[in-house]
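Notebook entry, structure prediction.
Reason for the run: the old model in the group folder had no record of what sequence produced it. Starting over properly, with the input documented here first.
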Amino acid sequence: MNTETFIQVDLVLHITGFTMMAGIILAELAVNQRVNRYLLTDKARAAGILDSAAGFPRLIGIGAALLIVTGIAMLSVFKESVAGMLWFKIKMVIVLLILINGVVVLRRNSNRLQALLEKADPREDATLLLVKRRLGVALGIELLLFLIVFFLSIFRF
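New structure, fully documented this time:
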């Protein structure tokens, strides 16, 4: 395989990993919107809907691994010609923010929401709504960050 073909295949796989991650976040946002319908009226149903997204973190992990491996492979080919560019440096900071938001904020709030739904304690409804709101905001921020990375990758400067 020559270098040009390697770069093209690598780029396709890199975009696939990125699309997997962003797509799963979008699907998670849709699932969480559906959970909103039953959050206070039918907690068991809301927990069931939320449970349908239980495999999402694993798929995001697969997409992230694909993204990292292919990103490193492309950097090994391009070396400083890409790594020294401003758009790439900004992109890496945004990717770091995506990872932090995903691991710290999204995971913590998802686990907390699941635990509150399993408890089904009416005294916890205010906390439940707060956690749900935080989760929605974090998912929106995650999608915005993915959009910025996509924008930076296309409009290189």
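Summary: The CA atoms of residues 26 and 148 lie 15 Å apart.
The old model has been moved to the deprecated folder.
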